[in-house]
Specification:
- There is one protein chain.
- The chain is α+β, with helices and mostly antiparallel strands.
- It has two domains: 167 residues, Sulfite Oxidase, Chain A, domain 2 (Alpha-Beta Complex); 163 residues, E3 ubiquitin-protein ligase SopA (Pectate Lyase C-like, 3 Solenoid).
- It contains six helices and eleven strands.
- Strands 1, 4, 5, 8, 9 and 10 form a six-stranded mixed β-sheet that branches. Strands 3-2-11-6-7 form a five-stranded mixed β-sheet.
- A hairpin with a 5-residue loop joins strand 2 and strand 3.
- The longest helix is centred in the middle third of the chain and has 10 residues.
- It starts with 19 loop residues before the first strand and ends in a 15-residue tail after the last helix.
- The relative contact order is 0.10.
Length: 365
């Protein structure tokens, strides 16, 4: 694994903030695992919209062309990064030039996937021209696996990887922006700069509504992206099946809270009192629990990829201690495989165990 280097004066770090560096052999599958197949139509790649000449190529024709290789780092919004991935493909700029380039008025580029949900994303044309993305067919010397966007995907450097749409089918140049699936449906940030941690768009919440939610201590099934609930007494909160991505519950009292089935990806739960809280089958990917009290908490079936239970060397915030856990913390051994090795070791120490895997209780790690 390539170690992250400290930046020089005026340079940004190679590893963006709050990202975990993965070894070269790991590439987690994010999102859907296969393209749309039910219609049986031939796979083509089309450039249309505000262009001088629309173009459509059979996929096999594009794949047969001479390719370039570009080595770049990949950063996923779910807090993992990989350094030095080698992608092979064609420059989007060259494909655009074949049709005479963008027409007057083109300001944005929309990338659309051959998927059941019609995944798409967009970027300003000026950024596309500056970032010089690839239409890619291979990664690290092998054809792109289907679950990673094969046979063809976009690869956009310098952005969270959801801007590199899988299973590319159409590229449309637009005069006005069109939010993609991840931005419009799940609230991901439209600019996606990893070094600015532009993961989510913070929605404007009506303060009176939030105040009532806090008083009732019920968020069941609600979509409260980016909720700020710092230093609050929310003992016994009911938040089952709630969408609380990027929520901030730092230092709050959440003893006995029920987050079963909730989406708490990238949430901040540092130093919160979570004794007896339930996170059964919750999405906790990228969530931070440094310093939290998790004694008696139930995390059975929760997704923990990228979750953090304390500082990691060399750059962890050592002002926060590890999460407090003991034998009453319910956590299945298999769940810990989703954590980084440093986090696995930290959890093992927090549970006062010699290692991870052996199970004294039958359902706790």
């Amino acid at each position: 694994m390539t170690a992250p280097t400290r930046p020089g004066p005026g340079e940004r770090p190679r590893l963006p903030p709050n990202q975990a560096l993965l070894p070269a052999e790991r590439w987690p599958v994010v999102g859907e695992a296969r393209p749309r197949t039910h219609d049986g139509s031939p796979w083509t790649v089309t450039i249309d919209g505000c262009v001088r000449q629309p173009l459509t190529w059979p996929l096999a024709v594009l794949m047969a062309r001479p390719r370039i290789v570009r080595v770049q780092d990949v950063h996923c919004v779910t807090r993992w990064s990989r350094f030095d991935m080698a992608f092979e493909g064609l420059r989007l700029a060259d494909l655009l030039a074949e049709g005479g380039g963008p027409a007057a008025g083109a300001r944005y580029v929309s990338f659309q996937a051959r998927s059941d949900r019609g995944h798409s994303t967009s970027l300003p044309l000026a950024q596309v021209e500056a970032l010089d993305p690839l239409v890619a067919f291979a990664a690290d010397g092998a054809p792109l696996p289907e679950e990673h966007g094969g046979p063809v995907r976009m690869v956009v450097p310098g952005k969270y990887f959801y801007k590199s749409v899988k299973w590319l089918e159409r590229i449309s140049l637009l005069t006005e922006d069109r939010l993609g699936y991840w931005e419009g449906e799940t609230g991901y940030h439209n600019n996606a700069d990893p070094w600015a941690e532009e993961r989510y768009i913070a929605r404007n919440l009506d303060r009176r509504r939030v105040k009532k939610l806090m008083a009732d201590r019920s968020m069941v099934g609600l979509d409260l992206l980016g909720l700020v609930a710092v230093d609050l007494d929310l003992t016994g909160l009911r938040a089952t099946d709630a969408k609380l991505r990027n929520a901030d519950f730092r230092r709050s009292r959440l003893r006995g809270a029920d987050f079963s089935g909730a989406n708490l990806s990238n949430a901040r739960l540092d130093t919160a009192d979570l004794r007896g809280a339930r996170f059964v089958t919750a999405d906790l990917e990228g969530a931070s629990f440094a310093g939290a009290d998790l004694r008696g908490a139930d995390l059975t079936g929760a997704s923990l990829f990228g979750a953090s239970f304390g500082p990691e060397p060399p750059d962890g915030d050592r002002s926060l201690p590890p999460a407090r856990m003991d034998v009453t913390t319910r956590l299945e051994a298999g769940q810990l495989d989703r954590l980084s090795p440093a986090q696995q070791a930290l959890v093992a120490r927090a549970l006062e165990r010699d290692g991870i895997g052996g199970d004294r209780s039958g359902d706790r790690a």
